[in-house]
Amino acid sequence: MSAAASSPAETPAARQVDEYGYEPTFYHVKEGEKGPNLTIEDFSLWYGQSRALWNINLGAQKGMVTSLIGPSGCGKSTLLRSLNRMNDLVDGVKTSGQVALDGMPIFGPAVDVIALRKRMGMVFQKPNPFPMSIAENVTYPLKVDGVTDKTMLAEAVENGLKGAALWDEVKDRLKDSALGLSGGQQQRLCIARAIAGNPEVLLMDEPCSALDPIATMKIEDLIDELKGTYTILIVTHNMQQAARCSDNTAFMYLGRLIEYGETDTIFTNPKLKRTEDYVTGRFG
Amino acid sequence: MTDYAAKDVPMTAQARVKTTRNYATDLAARGEPMVFAMGGSLAIGLLMIIGILGLIAWFGFTTFWPQHIVQVTSKDGKVIAGEVFRSESFKPADAQLAAVPAESRAKIEEDLGYAERTLYRVGNYDLYGEDFQWRNEYDVAATEMPADMTFIERQEWGPFVGRITALSLNGVVTQNPTLDAVNAAVSEGQARREAILDLKTDEIGRISTEMEELRLEVKSAALDYGATDQRTLDKTAEVAEKTKALEAQFAEKTTTLQSLQAEDAKYTMTLADIGGQTKEQELSSIVRLYQPNQMSLFEKLGIYFGRWGEFIFSEPREANTEGGVWPAIVGTLAMTVLLSLLVAPFGVMTALYLREYAKQGRLVSFVRICVNNLAGVPSIVYGVFGLGFFCYVLGGTIDQLFFPEKLPSPTFGTGGVLWAALTLALLTVPVVIVATEEALASVPRSMREGSLACGASKWQTIRWIVLPRALPGIMTGLILAMARGAGEVAPLMLVGVVKLAPELPLDLSWPFIHLDRSFMHLGFHIYDVGFQSRNAEAGRPMVFVTTLLLIAIILAMNATAISVRSRLKRRFAGSQF
Ligand SMILES: Nc1ncnc2c1ncn2[C@@H]1O[C@H](COP(=O)(O)OP(=O)(O)OP(=O)(O)O)[C@@H](O)[C@H]1O
Ligand SMILES: [Mg+2]
Fold this sequence. Notes:
heterodimer, A: alpha/beta, 25% strand, disordered N terminus, B: 13 strands, binds adenosine-5'-triphosphate
């Protein structure tokens, strides 16, 4: 077990830089009562020859919200997609290191990927509703599990859509094609779909990038509501959003985890210069 | 600015000045230079299509229109009567010219030695031994259109052109009967003919089929138990008894048939051609008759549509040059539907494996190239393969296993609608595979990812997300395959299409679709009528009509498939914003 989950707050004393000029990750994590749920240990990833992630160590606390920030192309999506092994689908991806969900490793030949994915809901950067009706979209995870009970499905539709702040807009057209929704509505539908599967971990890749402020607020409310029960990882380019709704924030840069710790500290008193430059908007 | 942004060196003012461009517009960039060629190609393509369709539609739609009967008197006194079939210019030989009167010759010389001639459809093949006669324009003394000239379509010998001089109904003779009286007698005759046909095919045919079945029962018992076994002997005795009863029935029916035919022969009419030759014609052998020179437009329309109805819904006669093409329509449709049912699952599953499951690599690329090349193999090659493999190997094996009592006459071991459909399925499967692969590839990756992220397995994702989304593209492939299959003739000649099929592949007797039967096909029918018949000239109009019908059927099938596809597509259309 590395420093990822348990390291106490450090001070930015004289720190060794590696051969590329990067210091080790600086940790000041706010720990939850239940400890880390998802632990990433020394994780690296290559797309063919090019390396996208460099020795990431990070523990997402159980029942808390962890946000991932960093400039475009720094590997946030890559990291998130590694957690439910979505990157398996990309040709030529190699990984090293390990990720554990509740202490159970997720990389390895014996892992049941389907069971793993059922424990993790995912909302993608671009909305990807299925070419079916709105209701069918929400109940897709249940359909996958073979649920056919009408009342259960109807309940899941209502809960999911209410949770994603979409219910009022679509309750009269649940049988219509989901592709007829606006981009923002489609994204909320995808959120509804992700929570309808009742996962333990929710992976959200910029869920609000296509939403208006009111819908964004609703999603943030939803995140507030869900935290406690779900462990949430959220990628965002919106600093205010990260500041508002996350407990811990991880700042990534060019495939490295630079600083990981309490959100307030990251935004008000970042320990490293790179972090400070990014959160104050001096580059990025 | 921090060090990690320092790589962006700002462009200096000097660097910017150096890149001067020529701001004058290049000649090639003015207007659209190539649009002329592109538009031209499109126009040529359109012209060709319109030309083909126009030609076929013109000949196809005009063939059944009742023409006037023209009576042509030549200068040497010979008279003929017939429909104008076509006219052309020709160059008379010098010897011919010498015999032409001076003033006509002057006119021909004025026209650079060309003269006009017209082909008349004179009919009366039984009297003249030919259906058509040429008349040179310079030989013609007079043409007229006598009102009482009658065009009589018969079951045999083609049409008769002439007059009805007498009607003889069971010994009662009426000279110069009215058209109404003739028509009434003709419809009675047609009813008699129907009755005779019913007796022949339904009752006598049924008895022969039953006798044949009994014979096969004995044979299969002998095959099962051995020729000397008691059970076989019992069977033989039983069958002999039944056969005897059937034979008695058969004899009885045959006598009835003969008496009906004898009765029928008493109802005749006397026809006279323009030259006065007469012919005694049984009334039951008349299909229809009319006097085109005194018909109103409305009556002509009646004849026109009556002929179309006959063409579509009745059986061919006169070696396919007359009558209808109903068996060919049924055969074409049955074969095409069967082909689609076979090719769709086969092609889609192959493409699914190639695109979704097989590891993309050199081997898969090679397979893909092979599949694409299969589409270019001449279709007759498939016919040869179908005959050799499906008919002889597969069909022969089936016959030995399931129909040994019928051997040596083959059941599946010869051409049939199933083998034809399989052969064409093989021929068209590359089209379906290629189209399906493209459709699968065009399903956005994000949708698959969304499904997999919900915990769906690969097959669930394919079944619920990928296939529905790819369905319109798959349909396109099927439509192309169907169109190609329905229009293919060459391989069919080897694996099951015949000139005249005794029975339809679809009928009301169990099991309704008879996969082993040979069948008729519109494409082959065209070839047969146009090039294999006794009288190519007489068959030619039918070629166009049949072509028109084939095109219409393919168009209708495609339109159905396309409308299904567009309904599917609409389900997936939607805003992306
Ligand atoms: N399928 C892929 N094949 C090759 N390289 C990829 C692939 N996907 C991502 N990359 C590379 O990996 C790096 C990280 O990409 P990633 O999508 O994780 O960035 P991100 O942090 O999510 O950026 P953004 O904020 O713009 O979404 C980038 O340099 C990108 O070019
Ligand atoms: Mg991203």
